[in-house]
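Thread: "does anyone have the structure for this chain?"

Original post by V.I.:
We have the sequence but no experimental structure in hand. Need at least a predicted one for the grant figures.
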Amino acid sequence: MDVHLKGIEKVFPRGAVAVRTLNLHIPSGEFVTLVGPSGCGKTTTLRMIAGLERPTAGEIYFGGTPVTDLEPGDRNVAMVFQNYALYPHMNVYRNLAYGLRVRRTEPAEIDRRVREVARILEIEPYLQRKPRELSGGQRQRVALGRAMVRKPALFLMDEPLSNLDAKLRVSMRAELKRLHLELKTTTVYVTHDQLEAMTMSDRVAVMHEGALQQYDSPGSLYNAPVNRFVAGFIGSPPMNFVEAIVEREPEGLILRVAGTVIAAGSDQRDRLEQRSGERRVILGIRPENLRFEPPGSPGSIPARVFVVEPVGPETYVDLLVDGQRLIARTDAETSVRVDDAVGLVLESRRLHLFDPDSGQAIR
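Reply from O.Q.:
Generated one for you, tokens below.
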């Protein structure tokens, strides 16, 4: 079942705007993640899809049918919360079966569905245990199972992994992705963790201050961000930004950063030509697209090493360039040390260009 949000807005009492004119189409069977910083409107959007909040304006459609005014129980959706929301006095079996019992499903069918879901989630040994006797990961599987057992047309998940430790979150991300591939149920997932969004999703909707910034595949978000906010939010470590001066030389336009001429690629030059007369531009460069050369090397920017952070198979190097902080990702065996002077080279083919005033990418 596909989901279509048309012109959705949400304004809370006293004029607090949570969501601004949101248009979003979630194709049937896809895993779509709403991601953004706290307060960006992603959870409010999810709650409007669920029917727990009513939009101030706009319409919501499930499979082409308007559902904006339907109660949550009439939408055939299942929601998984970050706090599990399990009944503490019921064992796992009864927690899984509860929704079906409320709908007066036949006992034999309840038993069949509960045991099928328990097998898929590998929680069969825990069916007689109470939630307090389970680990965080096991409780999250029960919460997922309670949603799955109803066989809804739509899964809605509100930061379901945020209460788990880092190692368990990694394994549960893989579990959720496997389950989605197996069940093929349309899923809308909310998180503030862009790594979760990038690794699990077919498409990602990046939100900021209630507005949709970009809705695209993870690869497109990373390689072709539409504005500076998306470029800085997606990626870890985040994209670096430096101001550059655009100058015209006999051979064409050039970029100058901290007094150094940067060899822009033909694509960048074409885009700059369309901005004839503009003197400034913001360059974006991913940490992995920076490399070190000896100080004074042709085409390199003078930089000084501020911090060196080994992180196992690679190293993050914080640098100072003309008073600005940049971060480079390099191999674990790097020889640079704190306070070293280095020449920093930007891979010209990997440069992103942004308007210094609007923050929009220069296409």
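V.I.: this helps a lot. The two ends are 34 Å apart (CA to CA).
O.Q.: and Residues 3-233 form a domain with the Rossmann fold fold (CATH 3.40.50.300).
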